[in-house]
Write a structure and sequence with these properties.
Keywords: Coiled coil, Membrane, Transmembrane, Transmembrane helix. It is a single chain. The protein is an all-alpha fold and about 70 residues long. The protein is rod-shaped and about 100 Å long.
Length: about 70
């Protein structure tokens, strides 16, 4: 009976350790994905600002082209 109790305790300890390990791994994965999402969001914001600047530049160039076409 003592051997059965030792084996049962070992299995419970292993299962508990594995469960805690999985929880930590899942949390680390969640944190990594959260950081990755935040990084992608910042990159998207930078690209949006860059696109807005380029659109403004294109608008100014088109205005200049229109002025040249009208002979002003």
């Amino acid at each position: 009976m003592h051997d059965f109790s030792s084996i049962l305790n070992a299995l419970i300890s292993f299962a508990t350790g594995y469960f805690v390990f999985r929880l930590k791994s899942d949390k680390n994965s969640h944190d990594f994905l959260k950081d990755d999402l935040n990084r992608a969001d910042k990159e998207l914001e930078q690209k949006s600002k860059e696109i807005e600047r380029l659109n403004n530049k294109i608008r100014r160039l088109n205005d200049e082209i229109d002025k040249l076409k009208r002979g002003q």
